[in-house]
Amino acid sequence: WTSKIKTNFSKESPVYLLGSSYHKKQDESPEKASEAAGFDTDSSGEVSIAEDAINMDEGMEGFKRDFVSRIWLTYRREFPILNGSTFTSDCGWGCMLRSGQMMLAQALVCHFLGRGWRWNSEVATQTDQQQMEERTHRRIIKWFGDQPVAQSPFSIHTLVSLGASAGKKAGDWYGPASVAHILSQAVAAGGNRHQELENLAVYVAQDCA
Fold it and tell me: Which residues belong to the signal peptide in this entry (predicted)?
């Protein structure tokens, strides 16, 4: 017995990315596009949604700019050996650590640059403000570099070392709860070495799964 299931996508539906909505249709008013997206309008005709939560004027190009501005951290190989092991790759076991890194990276980008920040690959045309933001962006990426150095407080090497206190080691599967606590410890330790992180903390809820 087999079941043929085909995923259907509507070209008229908006695309959502981390709280922002992008709609392909450009010939409609924001109110009509919002109705198509499932949002309500109040009696005055104004859309009852945060101003930056839906981007009718950007369309799919806006979605692409938003998407490529997110930091992607995934499996790697041939990095320095992880402490207490022979591993030089996290392929096959580091998925939750990488997911945690990306979640933290997104939080840091929003904190230091704002949700509306977009990466600009044209360095030559950047304004002074954009150049400053680019340096901040590069600094955030460097914090996650796969190397056992103080300049990378959120590297997989640091996270694996912190995991040892919870009985985890390189090659083990890390669950969501253990990664949450590891990230909390990493941010706390990072604040001792990096001034930008001094007043930041990761809150881990204790009363949920």
Answer: none
SS3 of 65, please?
Answer: helix
Cα Rg for the chain, rounded, in angstroms? 21
pLDDT band at 208 (very low <50, low <70, confident <90, very high): low
**Other beta carbons within 10 Å of 190:** 19
In the chain, how long is the greatest CA-to-CA distance?
Answer: 65
Predicted pLDDT at 30: 53
pTM of the model: 0.80
Question: What dihedral angle (degrees, nearest 10) is formed by the CA atoms of 85, 88, 93, 99?
Answer: 120
CA distance 129 to 115: 16
Name the DSSP class of 153: T
Q: Count of CB atoms within 10 A of residue 124's CB?
A: 4
pLDDT at 175 over 90: yes
As beta bridge partners, residue 89 has 77
